Amino acid sequence: MESSLYILVPLSIVLVFIIAGIFWWSVRSGQFDDLEGPAWKVLLDDERPMPDTDEIEQGEDKRKN
Q1: pTM of structure
Q2: 30: left (phi over 0), alpha (psi -120 to 50) or beta
Q3: Which pLDDT tens digit goes with each residue over 1-31?
Q4: How far apart are CA 6 and CA 8, in angstroms?
Q5: Which of 5, 43, 45, 51 is spaced 20 to 30 Å from 37 by Cα?
């Protein structure tokens, strides 16, 4: 039972340092700079602009005549 602790404790310490190093690298490389930008780009990605309300009303008037 105690012999497994001699393996697991150093292994867990090494794992913590590896995870901390990966996190530090991701912060330094800018992975967390803009978290909301990509989400808004998906929602606002339109190929053609929306028509103005005046253009919509004029279109409805033309259809009635």
Answers
A1: 0.52
A2: left
A3: 688 999 999 999 999 999 999 999 999 998 8
A4: 6
A5: 51
